[in-house]
Amino acid sequence: MRVRKLIDSFNYAIDGIIYTLKTQRNMRIHITAAIGVLLLSLFFRLSKLEILILFFTISLVIITEMLNTSIEATIDLITDQYHELAKIAKNVAAGAVLIASFNAILVAYIIFFDKLNLVTEIVLNKVRQTPIHVTFISLIIVVLIVISLKAYYGKGTPLRGGMPSGHTAIAFSLVTAVAFISENTLIITLSLLLAILIAQSRIEAGFHDLVQVVMGAILGICITLLIFQTIY
Asked: What is the topology of this protein in the membrane according to its UniProt annotation (predicted)?
């Protein structure tokens, strides 16, 4: 009986994780980011301390997200009416997730910055002399392809909705161009963060879904990479 209860406990815990993954979009984002960071860590010589910090940071984000989901479910069970204390409880739980997420970004930046900076400098030195006007040509081509694809799918307008996200495509095209031209890794990182915020805002505003945004980002990056590499 004790073994059976122990197995049931594990099953209940796993069910909780699966429920959070199925119902919480932020949890899926956290898991995807965690997998990406862990895969990236395989290509660098991280110390045992750095690996431990990564695991702790990832666990902290996931745990806070699950606690946030648990608190929301408990409040919704108790009442379906608006109450100021219920609002405070949900906001505080969400704030805990936000702090853990910012901490994760900071930890990843500190651990990977110097290592990525070295790799980036090697790549950038090979294409530093690429003409600046290539950037504008890339943007024009990205815009034309986005408009063509929207016309093909027959949904949305050139500036709103449809497949793919034009704003996201242009944003990530600019990030890619900045990566080729800029000498400062910090500038590249900040540009990438701005592009991600643009993509996220298109989803939050309801103009695009995740697939349209991702396709826009891939389109912008691939076309700009192709043009820069071809010209070079």
From this structure: Multi-pass membrane protein
pLDDT digit string (tens) for 159-190?
Answer: 566 777 888 888 888 888 888 777 677 888 88
Q: How distant, in Å, are the alpha carbons of 17, 53, 57 from that of 70?
A: 11, 25, 20
Has residue 119 been placed in a domain?
A: no
pLDDT above 80: residue 226: no
- Lowest-confidence segment of 18-27, 88-97, 149-158, 184-193 by average pLDDT: 149-158
12 labelled ligand-binding: yes
Output the CA–CA distances (angstroms, integers) from residue 128 to 125, 156, 187, in the order listed. 5, 38, 15
On whether both 107 and 74 belong to a single domain, the answer is yes
Which of 73, 55, 68 is CA-nearest to residue 27? 68
* pTM of the full structure: 0.53
| Residue 43 included in any domain | yes
Look at residue 230 in the predicted model and tell me its pLDDT. 64
Same structural domain, 101 and 153: no
> What distance in Å separates the CA atoms of residue 71 and residue 91, rounded to the nearest whole number?
10
Contact call for residues 188 and 141 (beta carbons, < 8 A):
no
Judge if 199 and 135 occupy the same domain: yes
Catalytic residues: 65
Please give the pLDDT value at position 57.
92
* 101 shares a domain with 141: no
Q: Does 121 appear as a known binding residue?
A: no
**4 lies in the same domain as 31:** yes
> What is the per-residue pLDDT for 8?
73
The total number of structural domains that make up the chain: 2
Confirm whether residue 72 is marked as ligand binding: yes
140 shares a domain with 109: no
